[in-house]
Structure formats: structure tokens, C-alpha cells
Design a protein that fits this description.
mainly alpha; 0% strand
Length: 74
Amino acid sequence: MKAAIGKGLRVFGHFWWDFLIGDTPELAVATLLLVGLAFAVDHNRLAGAVLLPLMAAVFLLLSTVRGRRRASGD
């Protein structure tokens, strides 16, 4: 019984690791940074409306550039 529970926990943890981190750990880190930034600019609505979409676009652009470099073998 103990082994089955341990295996179940390992499988559950592996699922969440693949779901949250997956092939692109930089997007998981970027998401955490964006959420942190959202909490940091909570008091200033205009800064949040400008910074959050801008930072999201920058992170996606950097992730795309990194992915293209990995795909081309550079």
C-alpha cells in the first residue's frame, strides 16, 4: 500500500512538472515574473496596463528567438 501511494505521488508530481514546466521552462519563469510584477504594480493601474502586456510580449519574443535558435542548431 505504501509503495502504491509513493508511486501515485511520483506520477502526480511528474504530471504537474510536465504541465507547468514542460519543454519551455523559461515560460514558467516568465509567468512567475509577470504575476510578481502584477502584484508589484497593483497600486498603479496605468503602469500595470502598460508594463504587463509589454513584458508578456518581450518574454514571448525571447522564447520564440530561443526556440528558433534551438531548432536551427545554432
